[in-house]
Amino acid sequence: MNTNWSERAIILAPRGRDAALAAAMLRDGGMDSLIVTGIGELVQTARGGAGFALVTDEAFHRVDLRGLDAFIGEQEEWSDFPFILLTERGGSIERNPAAGRHLELLGNVTFLERPFHPTTLISIATAALRGRRRQYEARTRLQTIRDREQQLRIALAAGRLGAWALDVTTMTLDASDHCKENFGRRPDEPFRYEDLISTVHPDDLGAMQDAVGRTLATGVDYDVEYRCIWPDGSQHWVQVRGRTEEDKAGRRHRLVGVSQDITDRKASEETLRNFAAELEDRVERRTREHEAMTAQLHEAQKLETLGQLTGGVAHDFNNLLTPIVGTLDLVRRKTDDLRTQRLLDGALQASERARTLVARLLAFARRQNLEARPVDVTALVDGMVDLIQRSIGPTIRLEVRIEEAPAAALVDPNQLELALLNLAVNARDAMPEGGKLTIETSRIDIGSEQPGLIPGPYALIRVTDTGAGMDAATLARAVEPFYSTKGIGKGTGLGLSMVHGLAAQSGGALVLESVLGAGTTARLWLPAATAEAVAPTIPPDNWQRDGRTLKILLVDDEELVRSGTAEMLADMGHEIVQAGSGAAALGALRSQAFDILVTDYLMPSMSGLDLAREARRLRRDLPVLMITGFADLADDRGRDVARLAKPFHMDELARAIELEMVPSAENRMSAD
Fold first, then answer.
1. I want to staple 529 with a disulfide (CB 3.0 to 4.6 A). Which of 32, 192, 374, 616 is the partner?
2. Which residues carry this modification: 4-aspartylphosphate (predicted)?
């Protein structure tokens, strides 16, 4: 069967430029065509596949049409090839006597009288092509029917069903060749009912004869499976089914049916039973794995909830610490009494410890202010060797294994150094009698084998100790904030929480492995840097205020924070205008000119970022300093906004303002 789906038109118009014009019209209608020069070429092309033929009536004058007639008569049952015949006298037999001959020859033909409008040709051609497509679809359906019939014939032959009949009055068995094959007999061998009984396996003979007796007694269908032993001693399974026939008196005198060798099916069923048992075992194992993964998910959700709670608490603490630190710093600068200075220094030291504690809480909550950039992790670890050795003491041997190729990561280098120190100190505390601490760096491309990480390149820092290790319960809670196995006063329980938060916020992960009595390994995965790693830039220590007096718009919804910050700014000599909301700040900006906008980030109704965007619509070059309790500015809108983390000292506030005013001054100079 021809499977060609061609929709190309065949054009036969031997006079003048008729063929070219027809091809151009069809092309304008989006149809492909081929121009032929004679009937023979038309027939050859049509046999290869085409959508329809466009022919002028003069092409049929004084030519041999037997080839065309043969092509039309030899078409497969699905095909009725369409013709469009261009005539000068239409298709009416009265006006065009030749039309009758053409209709009889071509069959599926549409007459189009010349001259005609191109739209008429396109319409008729489209209809012919639509009909050809239906023929193609009919061909597909016909082929499908034929395929299914062939499959049915193959299935029946492959089933090797044998036919049999048993005369109950004489117990005479009549078996077909296939039936004999089911019992291991050749077609030319005799096969009596006694021979059949002798082949049935002794263990199945009783059930087989009971089934025959029940069918003859009640008329129920005969359906039984049993083993039979072939003459060569091999054992096979057969399924025998049948029904009774009754004579005119209603007596059951004949049993007829089919037989089938089901040895392969029985073997498959046995295999299936074994597979089902194995599958059940696998399901049980997977269920246990799923329960373990669910437990891990619950643990992750618990840590996420703890992180959200911790971040919120830390943010509130920062708001409380900001006026405390600022006021203490301001009072410390204004007093000359030595005893008061010592007391204030103690209070400032305590506030610094509180600030460090809050920073660790924010690190666990993944809300710390990270300045991620490409960092050569290999160089960073190598540069910390002396510091780590001093931190762990002389009783612990430090071994650093660094790959020759640099391992660059996208991370905040300062936070990474703090994380490595936390891991080293934890390892030290796990080895009170001494031991060995190993730090390794490498660059690894991972696929989906590391849960929780996106496949791709990573820098890996592996920290391994030979300490006491952790049991499963301790390991499961190791990164929870404030969880510690150390004694009272020996740890905050935030070291591993901080490392976990840094890794997660950087797009990596912290993976802990530990065996009680056999040490612990911490794997810190960090996304590999796509840019060239650079050493961290150290700000100059010789910074000094330039002494300018600035007009500053200070915005914060917390009155304590706002008033404390205003006092520090006023003490620097600046002019301060305070606003308790974004709306009030915009009102002040519309009525007054300011040198810089200093605003809190998290405020009701309008955040600091939204305020900065609206303020820069009023004045595009307005410097903005954002004061925030955590790093929620890490979106694209906050990249051009300077940030100052709460709490802060007076010098930190002054430095942040001066640094933000430097580019503003440069812009004004360039504009001048």
1. 374
2. 600
Tokens of 331: 């009072």
- 248-284, pLDDT tens digit by residue? 888 888 999 989 889 988 888 888 888 888 888 888 8
Whole-angstrom Cα Rg for the chain: 47
Three-point CA angle 661, 665, 670, nearest 5°? 150
**Which residues, including other chains, have CB under 8 Å from residue 22's CB and lie 6 or more apart?**
11, 13, 33, 54, 86, 121
Residues 108-160: tens digit of each pLDDT: 888 888 888 899 999 999 999 999 999 899 999 998 888 886 774 465 456 67
Q: What is the overall mean pLDDT for the chain?
A: 80
Of 47, 44, 42, the closest CA to residue 4 belongs to: 47
- Per-residue model confidence (pLDDT) at position 536: 43
Contact 659, 642 (CB under 8 A): yes
Q: What is the total count of domains within the chain?
A: 4
Please return the burial class of 447, using the count of CB atoms within 10 Å of its CB with bins 0-12, 13-18 and 19+.
exposed
Please tell me whether residue 576 adopts helix, strand or coil conformation: strand
Query: In this prediction, what percent of the chain has a pLDDT beyond 70?
Result: 77
| Residue located via tokens 């029946």 | 156
Question: In 3-state terms, what secondary structure has residue 444?
Answer: strand
Q: Are 595 and 619 within 8 A, CB to CB?
A: no
For 343, counting Cβ atoms within 10 Å of its Cβ (0-12 exposed, 13-18 middle, 19+ buried), the class is middle
Same domain flag for 589 and 645 = yes
Helix, strand and coil content of the chain, in percent to the nearest 5, comes to 50, 20, 30
Cβ atoms of residues 371 and 330 within 8 Å: no
- Give the predicted TM-score (pTM) of the model: 0.36
**Cα–Cα distance between 423 and 402 in angstroms, integer?**
17
Burial class (CB in 10 A: 0-12, 13-18, 19+), 148: exposed
Question: Considering 492, 527, 562, which residue would you say is the last residue of a domain?
Answer: 527
**Angle subtended at Cα 642 by Cα 640 and Cα 643, rounded to the nearest 5 degrees:** 130
Structural domain range at position 76: 9-155
Residue 358 covered by a domain: no
Task: Evaluate whether 654 touches 545 at the Cβ level (below 8 Å).
Answer: yes
542: nearest Cα among 655, 460, 405, 671: 655
Buried b / exposed e across 167-194, counting CB within 10 Å, b at 16+?
eeeeeebebbebbbbbbbbeeeeebebe
Task: For residue 656, give the 3-state DSSP assignment.
Answer: helix
| Residue 40: both structure tokens together | 């023979």
